[in-house]
Amino acid sequence: MIVDVRTYTMVPGRLGAWLKLYEAEGMPIHVRHLGQPIGVFTTDVGTVNQVVFFWGFESQADRERRREALEADPDWVSYRKKSADTGNVQHQECKIIKSTKFSPM
User: Fold this and answer.
1) Residues 79, 26: contact at Cβ < 8 Å?
2) 27-34 and 60-72 helices cross at what angle (nearest 10)?
3) What is the pLDDT of residues 54-91, one digit of tens each?
4) Which one in 12, 13, 67, 105 has a CA-CA gap of 20 to 30 Å to 85?
5) What confidence tens digit (pLDDT) does each residue in 8-64 have?
6) What digits encode the pLDDT tens for the residues 36-50?
7) How far is CA 90 from CA 20, 27, 28, 31, 69, in A?
8) How far, CA to CA in Å, does 102 sit from each of 28, 33, 36, 95?
9) Residues ≥6 apart with Cβ < 8 Å to 76
10) Nearest residue to 26 via CA among 81, 68, 80, 85
11) Pairing of strands 39-42, 2-10
């Protein structure tokens, strides 16, 4: 298993609006292509104004296949434009982490 960890840092004061838009419009499209996330979190201490996604995949090939389908979906293209037009995301960081042989997952 691999986990795609995506951290989005929002412009201060815009996290709530972004979360509302994502929950209503972005999340259903994500779930359609990527499945249910392992978790979606916001930061409370340290670097604030962040939302962190954990998406699990069987392999890198599985991840690439699902993400390609997502990026080709006209609904996702429309959502991304709407989200970008609101000017909420200040920075994005993506990591792929792999479970160890003794990991509970």
Assistant:
1) yes
2) 140
3) 999 999 999 999 999 999 999 999 999 998 877 788 99
4) 67
5) 999 999 999 999 999 999 999 999 999 999 999 999 999 999 999 999 999 999 999
6) 999 999 999 999 999
7) 17, 20, 23, 24, 25
8) 33, 29, 23, 20
9) 29, 33, 70
10) 80
11) unpaired
49 phi, psi to nearest 5 deg = 65, 35
| Token pair for 20 | 């509302």
Report the chain's C-alpha Rg in angstroms.
Answer: 14
SS3 63: helix
